[in-house]
Structure to design on (80 residues):
């Protein structure tokens, strides 16, 4: 699976999100910044992102996705 395809799936599932993805074709790291994460627990944030790629994980097309979720304020604090 291509890096941009993973990023696009996340963007489609979380409209307005800023998404950065890196990886090697089956293992990916994603940083997702979105206002929708405001007030959510870390688990709920992870689930929101994982739900965007659930079919690809189920099919084996996407083997692993490491996720870092941030609100815009958190991203600004971290310089992202």
């Amino acid at each position: 699976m291509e890096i941009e395809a993973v990023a696009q799936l996340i963007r489609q599932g979380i409209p307005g999100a800023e998404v950065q993805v890196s990886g090697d074709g089956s293992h990916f790291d994603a940083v997702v910044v979105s206002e929708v994460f405001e007030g959510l627990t870390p688990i709920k944030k992870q689930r929101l992102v994982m739900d965007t790629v659930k079919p690809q994980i189920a099919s084996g097309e996407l083997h692993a996705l490491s996720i870092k979720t941030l609100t815009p304020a958190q991203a600004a604090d971290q310089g992202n």
User: Anything to note?
Assistant: The chain has one domain: 3-72. The chain has a mean pLDDT of 94.
